Amino acid sequence: MDTRNNVTLCDSHKFKLVKLNVVKFAYMHLAALYGAYLCFTSAKWATIIWAFLLLEGAKLGITAGAHRLWCHRAYKAKMPLQIILLILNSIAFMNTAIYWVRDHRIHHKYTDTDADPHNSRRGFFFSQIGWLFVRKHPQVMEKGKTIYMEDIYSNKLLVFQRKYAIIVIGLWAYVIPTVVPMYFWNESLNNSWHICTMLRHVLTINLIFLVNSIGHKWGNRPFDKSIRPVENVAVSILSTGECFHNYHHVFPFDYKASELGDTMFNAATIFINFFAWLGWAYDLKIIPDKMIIARSQRTGDGKNLWGWGDKDQTEEETKNVELLYCKN
Question: CA of 60: how far to CAs of 80, 144, 265, 269, in Å?
Fold first, then answer.
């Protein structure tokens, strides 16, 4: 049996459907399709704009919040910013932030094995959304108990969100998105619910999870050709900057989650930079260019679109950088 780190890569485990989840996601996707139809037939422009703003905010609640801040601790945030991110994360409703962080830390430690909740070796559909339809693989449950989470459990905001999830998430993900258009510009309940809540929610889930599916399948591997995560610019744009994924799996603590400057194709980095300028985000972690070049030259596939492997760095410099920085 092919194994890695005492876990199987893709065994013959028979997953058990969670029927309630199947029904729930089927309804959500059908309702979202109807919402898309309503955008072209009866919705007011203000409603469509409101839904778009909610979508972008929700994605930031995952990318800048649950992912870069809480999961990878790639930067620190003062309380006002954490509250904003918690609200945006609640709008996204991809379970509570605590649950999301735990799953993502497992994903990084056991990438593309059966201990990875959305193991890409099981196919595009499974890694995109199918993993939400079934009970977790036993190895996900087993290895999940070993993941460090004390920093997350000690965060009072995240604990508050989990403790009062029905109220907090229900309010921000469902009530407010639906009620605002009805109250402020007399939109119908039908349009508000299907566009601002269902369509927006389904788009949030699927655009973020493109990183799990396409981000582990189609693209270049300029930093480590031995792993499945890839670089895909189109998905990065759709997910506010998260699909420089080969880079991210090699250097998970870079607050940009990207090798490209501060802002290129990366709305989450622009968001973090703004709050850094405001003083609410600080201790932003970055990876030195020489370290990036060294890793690209040592283990990459030579297909980086941005030329990291072509930078003028001698073999001796590369070795010195590896000794100074590289730990994997």
Answer: 15, 25, 14, 10
Which residue in this structure is represented by tokens 């895909």?
232
Q: How far apart (Å, rounded) are the C-alpha atoms in residues 45 and 274?
A: 28
For 175-221, how does the pLDDT look when each residue is reduced to its tens digit (9 = 90+)? 999 999 999 999 999 999 999 999 999 999 999 999 999 999 999 99
Angle between helices 289-299 and 315-325 (to 10 degrees): 110
Q: Provide the token pair at 51.
A: 């839904």
- d(CA 91, CA 282) in angstroms, rounded, equals 24
| Cβ contacts of 185 within 8 Å, gap of 6 or more | 44, 46, 47
Are 78 and 280 spatial neighbours (Cβ–Cβ below 8 Å)? Answer: yes
Beta bridge partners of 3: 8
Q: The tokens of 269 are what?
A: 């980095």
The answer to whether 236 touches 244, Cβ cutoff 8 Å, is yes
**Strands 7-8 and 3-4, sheet pairing:** antiparallel
The residue among 35, 299, 26 whose CA lies nearest residue 193 is 35
With vertex at residue 297, the alpha carbon angle to CA 63 and CA 321, rounded to the nearest 5 degrees, is 85
Give the span between the Cα atoms of 36 and 194, in whole angstroms.
Answer: 8
Mean pLDDT, the chain, whole residue set = 91
Sequence-ordered alpha helix ranges (H) in the chain: 19-41, 45-60, 79-92, 97-109, 124-128, 138-144, 150-153, 156-163, 165-169, 176-185, 189-191, 200-213, 233-238, 245-250, 267-278, 289-299, 315-325
The CA distance from 32 to 10, in Å, is 32
Instruction: Note whether 91 and 57 are within 8 A (CB).
Output: yes
Query: Would you place residue 23 in the very low, low, confident or very high pLDDT band (cuts 50, 70, 90)?
Result: very high
pTM of the model: 0.91
Counting Cα atoms < 13 Å in the Cβ hemisphere of 134 gives 20
